[in-house]
Amino acid sequence: MAIMTRFLRLVKADVHGVMDQIEDKELLLKQHFREMEEDLTKKEATVKRMTSVLESLKKEHDGIEKEIERLDADIDTAIRKEKDDIARFLIRKRQPLPGRLNAAAEKIAGYEKDLATNRNCLEQQRKQYEELKIRSSACFEQLRRKESETCFGSDLFNGSDGSCFNYGVSNEEIEMELIRRKEKIGGVS
Questions:
Q1: Which of 159, 35, 50 lies closest to 107, judged by CA?
Q2: Which residues contact 118 (CB under 8 A, 6 or more apart)?
Q3: Are residues 178 and 141 in the same domain?
Q4: In the predicted model, is pLDDT for residue 55 greater than 90?
Q5: Total-model pTM
Q6: 36 and 122 within one domain
Q7: 144, 114: one domain
Q8: Does one domain contain both 71 and 109?
Q9: Alpha-carbon torsion 46, 48, 52, 57, what sign?
Q10: What whole-number distance in Å separates Cα of residue 63 and Cα of residue 50?
Q11: pLDDT tens digits along 91-150
């Protein structure tokens, strides 16, 4: 039983190793970046929704304040005109409004705090995303250069001055051949 288990683990490890070699690391990274971008877009939409809710809460708060001011003015008018029944009715109507005003102010404060936290988090994640894109781009560019140097790194392809496709011929020999060919072309014309 233990031998079969070990054998299965070896087969799984080989399969994972082959899959790792088959997978294109750059394509995988691009997919991860797309997923990160989608996540950031969702978080931006959440921040926009929260901003919209906060604006409606502020409108509600302002509406309650205006209602209190209007009722206070109406109560004063009713008292001046000695309409006690109307004044009592308006006072009864005004009674719950300060509590609603405080509740709205607390909701606003909570939303403002949450919104600031989410905006800060989104900003940090956006910066990290941009930094990762730059770093990965530089890393893959460096890997491409290394691969290029590996493919063309032998002395057969590179001269001592680093020029490619030299095939072991010195620069002086190339210059002499160029002069000969120029003279040949110049003599024919």
A1: 50
A2: 43, 46, 47, 50
A3: no
A4: yes
A5: 0.57
A6: yes
A7: yes
A8: yes
A9: positive
A10: 20
A11: 999 999 999 999 999 999 999 999 999 999 999 999 998 888 888 888 777 777 776 665
